[in-house]
């Protein structure tokens, strides 16, 4: 799809920032805010995918020695809430096409399917069912680095894979049908999981960081590929 400058003008959600504007960082932040409503479902006319829900790959967890081992696999994880990010700070370097964002993710809700296996000496406990949970007040650092690519007589901005780093806030996790719905083991295990939720977060955070980075990179490059560098930053 080839779009012209007239489309850029008519697309009210694309805000152009003057590269020599002393408040260019604020302008870029406002541009992102204008795009936010479109991010949820995507922008079909620009081939930009939606951000909600965010799908994660398989998450595997293995902890403990052979005599007291816990293994778990979580699949089909859907995360809702990434589009509600708050931009707390932006530092841009247009000469080097670098943008450093500090974001806050107020709340992320997720659900998926789990399978768990716990072995303590000769006792083996298994369970499978639904997993739901939430993460609150996650700090997120996003580094965007790009380069200009020549196409004919024009230059376009292309971003390298985004680097996303999360700093953990609060979390809660709930698993249904633990050990075939055992009325004692199920609630007790859920309490233990939440008391030790950092173990689960250590496994899910890299997957979440990678998935957010890939999605943000794809969204940004879909947009910048449709407009020349001069159109975006005259």
TrEMBL record:
Family indicated by similarity: Belongs to the TO family.
Name this polypeptide is given: Circadian clock-controlled protein
Gene Ontology biological process terms from the UniProt entry: circadian rhythm
Organism: Papilio xuthus
Gene3D superfamilies found in the cross-reference section: Haemolymph juvenile hormone binding protein
Keywords, ordered alphabetically: Biological rhythms, Signal
GO cellular component: extracellular space
């Amino acid at each position: 799809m080839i779009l012209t400058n007239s489309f850029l003008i008519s697309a009210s959600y694309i805000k152009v920032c003057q590269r020599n504007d002393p408040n260019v960082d604020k302008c870029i932040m406002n541009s992102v805010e204008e795009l936010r409503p479109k991010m949820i479902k995507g922008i079909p006319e620009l081939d930009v995918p939606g951000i909600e829900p965010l799908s994660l790959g398989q998450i595997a967890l293995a902890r403990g020695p052979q005599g007291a081992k816990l293994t778990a696999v979580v699949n089909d994880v859907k995360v809702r809430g990434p589009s509600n990010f708050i931009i707390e700070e932006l530092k841009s370097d247009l000469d080097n096409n670098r943008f450093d964002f500090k974001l806050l993710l107020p709340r992320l809700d997720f659900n998926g399917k789990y399978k768990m296996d716990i072995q303590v000496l000769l006792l083996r406990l298994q369970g499978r069912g639904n997993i739901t949970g939430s993460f609150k007040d996650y700090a997120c650092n996003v580094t965007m680095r790009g380069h200009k690519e020549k196409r004919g007589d024009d230059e376009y901005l292309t971003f390298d894979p985004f680097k996303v780093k999360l700093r953990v806030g609060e979390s809660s996790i709930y698993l249904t049908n633990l050990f075939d719905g055992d009325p004692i083991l199920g609630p007790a295990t859920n309490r233990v999981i939440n008391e030790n939720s950092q173990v689960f977060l250590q496994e899910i955070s890299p997957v979440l960081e990678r998935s957010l980075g890939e999605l943000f990179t794809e969204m940004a490059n879909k947009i910048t590929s449709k407009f020349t560098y001069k159109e975006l930053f005259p």
